[in-house]
Amino acid sequence: VHPNVSQGCQGGCATCSDYNGCLSCKPRLFFVLERIGMKQIGVCLSSCPSGYYGTRYPDINKCAKCKADCDTCFTKNFCTKCKSGFYLYSGKCLEKCPDGLEANNHTMECTSIVHCEASEWSPWSPCTKKGKTCGFKRGNEVRVREIVQHPSAKGNPCPATSESRKCIVQRKRCQKEGKGKKNREEKRKKSNKDESKETRQESKGRAARRQNREQRENNSKTQPKKRKAPNKEQDLAPVDTAH
């Protein structure tokens, strides 16, 4: 063993050097060279840092650098995230997306173009004019639909969501709201008046009956009691017919 190589290393190193750091790693750890100024130091990590991908060999596991336009990668030829100014598509970093795709500045990926989609039209509304459905012959009716899929940046724009057309109906007279309300109010007052009249009549009847009853009771108390006439047949003495 070289004098500068040590067996008692720390930080996951199997062998190390005071000048170059880790020379080999313990099992399952990845070996990677980190640059510090003009000097490179070997370190052992459980996973490769950003801009590197891991490769496993029987004798050592290494971290290799991704391509220059790739921020993170799975292998040398398959990128998972691109650096600023590039768009990811099928593992590659492109400055411009292929035909039929568009650049998504939020995810920095090339995505499919999405066109607008609208639902079916609703049935036509009743024929109206100035918000009313009576008092006219010619008016307008409308129908609407909803947007079910909004388009992407390069997708086809959405169509109109409402339509209007002329309509002809049989003219019918509008009922005046004030007059109808007045009639309802008069009916209500009349009903309340009739109920009050019946209530007053019932109260008068009860009062009259009570007054008559009290008058009869008073008369019975003030009049003297009539004496019964003597029974003439009882006052006569019995006649003795034997003599």
From TrEMBL:
GO terms for biological process: positive regulation of non-canonical Wnt signaling pathway; Wnt signaling pathway. Residues 169-243 are annotated as: Disordered. It comes from the Eukaryota. PANTHER family: NEUROHYPOPHYSIAL HORMONES, N-TERMINAL DOMAIN CONTAINING PROTEIN (PTHR46987), R-SPONDIN-3 (PTHR46987:SF1). This is R-spondin-3. It is found in: Secreted. Belongs to the R-spondin family. Residues 116-170 form the Spondin-like TSP1 domain. Keywords: Disulfide bond, Glycoprotein, Heparin-binding, Repeat, Secreted, Sensory transduction, Signal, Wnt signaling pathway. GO terms for molecular function: heparin binding; signaling receptor binding. Residues 11-110 form the R-spondin Fu-CRD domain. Interacts with the extracellular domain of FZD8 and LRP6. It however does not form a ternary complex with FZD8 and LRP6. Interacts with WNT1. Binds heparin. Interacts with LGR4, LGR5 and LGR6. Pfam families: Furin-like_2 (PF15913), TSP1_spondin (PF19028). GO terms for cellular component: extracellular region. Signal peptide: none annotated. The gene is Rspo3. Activator of the canonical Wnt signaling pathway by acting as a ligand for LGR4-6 receptors, which acts as a key regulator of angiogenesis. Upon binding to LGR4-6 (LGR4, LGR5 or LGR6), LGR4-6 associate with phosphorylated LRP6 and frizzled receptors that are activated by extracellular Wnt receptors, triggering the canonical Wnt signaling pathway to increase expression of target genes. Also regulates the canonical Wnt/beta-catenin-dependent pathway and non-canonical Wnt signaling by acting as an inhibitor of ZNRF3, an important regulator of the Wnt signaling pathway. The keyword Repeat applies. Residues 175-219 have a biased composition (Basic and acidic residues). The keyword Nucleus does not apply.
